[in-house]
């Protein structure tokens, strides 16, 4: 029986299967969790049946569905919504585990997360992008946890992220100072001329500009 199931899963993943065959498999294996999950990920499997399966999947398998590029986009979106609805009920350990493997399309819906440990897991995950980090910085809710996690990464060295930090009035002084070497001259001058910029930051801007001037090669 186990070998029959494995052969069926391989066929669903690699073989050519018609919609009629898929429905036949569904009716024959409607109590088999693994088969149902693979059916939901098959691009030819009807949406209405796939959606019923999605509601029965655990969090790890919802992520598998979301990350599977063969899955019907509508089904993937349903899996994202299902995961979001369950997210707040997960204990911290599960959140950390899930965010380490979560794709961008899922994390982008969770940028309001406030636990530094979970934010750090997202920032250090393999699917994190500059765009996602900028979204974290630009969110409307408090961002202290974001900066606590961000300071321990290399993301702030990316020009687009350094710019976002420089434009954030809530950015901590320490974070601003760390980003100064990665801002262009125009951004440094704009930050320096901003009346709200702390004097410590202004002094460091002068230091950065002086260092750049003295580092220029002699002509």
Distance between the termini: 79 Å
Report strand %.
Answer: under 5%
Percent helix range: 55-70%
Total count of strands: 0
Q: Poorly predicted ranges (pLDDT <50, ≥5 residues)?
A: none
The succession of helices and strands, N to C, reads: HHHHHHHHHHHHHHH
Overall mean pLDDT score? 92
Task: Return the structural class.
Answer: mainly alpha
Count of alpha/pi helices: 15
Rg over CA atoms: 24 Å
- Tell me the domain tally: 2
Major β-sheet annotation: none
How would you describe what is shown here?
The protein is mostly helical and 219 residues long. The protein has two domains: 1-89; 90-219, no CATH class. It contains 15 helices and no strands. Helix 9 (116-123) crosses helix 11. The radius of gyration is 24 Å and the shape is elongated. The model has no long low-confidence stretch (mean pLDDT 92).
Summary of the model, kept short:
The protein has 219 residues and is mainly α. It has 15 helices and no strands.
Keywords:
219 residues, mainly alpha
Write the layout of secondary structure elements.
Layout: H1 2-14, H2 19-28, H3 33-41, H4 47-54, H5 59-67, H6 73-87, H7 92-99, H8 104-107, H9 116-123, H10 130-138, H11 144-150, H12 159-166, H13 173-179, H14 185-193, H15 199-215
């Amino acid at each position: 029986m186990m070998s029959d199931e494995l052969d069926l899963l391989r066929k669903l993943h690699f073989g050519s299967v018609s919609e009629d065959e898929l429905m036949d498999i569904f009716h024959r294996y409607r109590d088999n969790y693994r088969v149902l999950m693979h059916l939901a990920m098959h691009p030819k499997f009807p949406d209405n049946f796939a959606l019923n399966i999605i509601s029965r999947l655990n969090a790890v398998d919802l992520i598998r569905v979301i990350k599977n590029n063969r899955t019907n986009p509508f089904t993937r979106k349903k899996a994202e919504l299902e995961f979001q609805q369950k997210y707040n009920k997960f204990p911290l350990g599960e959140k950390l585990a899930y965010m380490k493997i979560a794709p961008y399309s899922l994390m982008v819906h969770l940028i309001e997360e406030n636990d530094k440990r979970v934010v750090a897991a997202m920032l250090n995950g393999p699917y994190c992008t500059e765009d996602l980090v900028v979204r974290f910085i630009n969110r409307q809710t408090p961002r202290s946890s974001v900066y606590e996690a961000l300071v321990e990464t290399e993301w702030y060295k990316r020009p687009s992220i350094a710019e976002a930090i420089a434009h954030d009035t809530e950015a901590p002084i320490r974070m601003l100072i760390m980003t100064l070497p990665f801002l262009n001259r125009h951004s440094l001058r704009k930050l320096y001329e901003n009346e709200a910029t702390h004097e410590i930051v202004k002094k460091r801007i002068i230091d950065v500009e002086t260092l750049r001037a003295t580092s220029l090669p002699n002509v």
